[in-house]
Amino acid sequence: MLSTLIIALREGLEACLIVGILVAYLVRSERVAHLKALWSGVAIAIAASLGLGAVLSITSSELSDRSEKIFAGTSSFIAVGLVTWMVFWMQRTARSLRSDLHGKLDNAVANGPFAIGLVAFFAVVREGLETSLFIYSNFKTEDAIIQSTLGLVLGFAISITLGVLLYKRTVKLNLSKFFTITGVALIVVAAGVLSYGIHEFQELGWLPGADFFIWDVTHWIAADSVFGAVLGGVIGFDTTTSWTQFIVWGCYLVAVLIPYLGNSAQKSAPVEKVKAAA
Fold this sequence. Notes:
The protein has helices spanning 2-28, 35-62, 65-93, 97-111, 113-141, 145-167, 175-203, 226-235, 243-266, 271-277, and strands at 213-216, 240-242. With 278 residues, it is an all-alpha fold. The protein has one domain. α5 (113-141) crosses α7 (175-203). Belongs to the oxidase-dependent Fe transporter (OFeT) (TC 9.A.10.1) family. The chain crosses the membrane at residues 6-26, 38-58, 70-88, 108-125, 145-166, 178-198, 218-237, 246-262. Keywords: Membrane, Transmembrane, Transmembrane helix. It is a multi-pass membrane protein.
């Protein structure tokens, strides 16, 4: 539940802030007549993201056991790669995001409603598709489907509420700290998804060390227990974790967290987002 809540909260608020930037610019430049085209693009992006999630779930359920492991393992690696790239991308472009979106919107207005819809679509769908893939992969690491779904719904509800409140200047939020903290949380969750992908490929015999465990605590923590599911979804904990999983998990965290936190310490708050949301 906690991991899906973190994913939905972080990614949902990013999408809300992007939409807020676009809407605020059209309103302040007295071009509200183009809002319909903008919201159409946002709606299509959301539909495409939900569609990807449905395709992933349906495809996975119809595969054989071996094919499902290949599919789940591969999608886990892709999800980790995308999330890692997006975390650093947002960190790098946060300051210029507002001006970049304004420039794209100015060009789109000159080309008509369809172009405006495309700007909104591509701005949101990037977040949506990444989120769908990451959530699907994270769901595979947990057996508590109901709790995970609840965390997902709560995360999106909170992110949308925060987005609206920020847009209306009802609340203030230190977005620099928020995105740094949630970025670290996403990286930790991604490490867990990576560990799950390693496990799937080990079961296929594609990676070594499937039965060479660093620990086996199945006698104390049931793999299908709520506690085990929470640990598995958040940090990639497995009651029978192999050395290969543990080493890859640790190397990923070190390799990603050190430069991420180093960059965060060197950069000031993403004030562009604060101004855009206000």
